[in-house]
Amino acid sequence: MVLSLQPVPGAPLDELTAHLVVRRFLGEQGGAARAREAADAMVGRIRERTTVYDVVDGVPAGPVGRLWTVQQGEDRSVLHLRLDDAGLAPEVRVLVEDVARAAGCGRLTAAIHPEDPVGQAFADDPGFETAAVQMRLDLTGDLPGEGAVVLEPMDQAAYAVWEADEIESYAEARAKSGESPEQALRVSREQHAELLPHGLATEHHAFFVGRVDGVQVGTLWVGTERPMAFVYDVIVDEAHRRQGHGGGLMRAGALWARERGSHALGLNVFGYNHGARALYEGLGYEVVELFVGKQL
């Protein structure tokens, strides 16, 4: 078997949209119609940067799968890979690496789902590192209470200090996950400007100071722009770490999100942050998507 990738110019993106509905947006949006709207919106944003390939077996000739990739800055990212045989995934990975290098990309990334054997086989290579993990907590069942940490809304002075630190720390985290420091800082600034155009007053974003017996122990940023609430950032102040306050902030945030009507609470944890991932797993969060990257 000799595989090759053949571009399919003008290929419809319906299958990619359907994949994103099931794998990414259904749990986030809490319903099929809203999930379809979210997937359509994402595909619309990336359409011009997306390339579709047929995976072709030359002996005998014929397609054995299809690949969807998108150019994202210095990265070539695999959005979805469908193969008749998951055992072909390592050979496809080599072909994608060649395509990415020829395009001048510095890194190959992929979104991998826990229940997708093709994606798992594609990323089964020592060169790949986990850049980020998407996790989700179901808020429809019983939730533990939180008797120590009390959430109070941030005021403008606290927000100004928090924002400056947040942009820098998020850029540092992205750099640790494989991006160049320059790209990481640029992306951090761009994402914060897009997410928070009105700062503290931005609609659907809540910023809290967590206090224990009146003393600040950390901060929490939760977004409610989607049916699933999302923890964008949680920080335990350095003087109060390793005292259980991270779990307290997260429990208090989950209770707040459920009171606001959210069916689930999502978050992103960077791959190198094993301690945070263990904390979230201990709180009941499940892994829903892995983002892996490989330097080329």
Describe the protein.
The protein is an alpha+beta fold and 296 residues long. It is built from eight helices and twelve strands. It has helices spanning 14-29, 32-46, 89-102, 117-122, 156-176, 181-195, 245-259, 274-282, and strands at 3-7, 50-58, 61-72, 75-83, 107-112, 129-138, 150-153, 205-212, 215-223, 229-236, 264-270, 286-295. Helix 5 (156-176) packs antiparallel against helix 6 (181-195).
CATH topology label of the largest domain: Aminopeptidase
Number of domain units: 2
Q: How confident overall, as mean pLDDT?
A: 94
The low-pLDDT segments are none
Give me the strand/helix succession: EHHEEEHEHEEHHEEEHEHE
Record the strand order, biggest sheet: 1-2-3-4-5-12-6-11-10-9-8-7
Rg for CA atoms: 21 Å
Write the layout of secondary structure elements.
Blueprint: E1 3-7, H1 14-29, H2 32-46, E2 50-58, E3 61-72, E4 75-83, H3 89-102, E5 107-112, H4 117-122, E6 129-138, E7 150-153, H5 156-176, H6 181-195, E8 205-212, E9 215-223, E10 229-236, H7 245-259, E11 264-270, H8 274-282, E12 286-295
Parallel strand pairs: 4-5, 10-11
Antiparallel strand pairs: 1-2, 2-3, 3-4, 5-12, 6-11, 6-12, 7-8, 8-9, 9-10
Helix pairs in contact: 1-2, 5-6
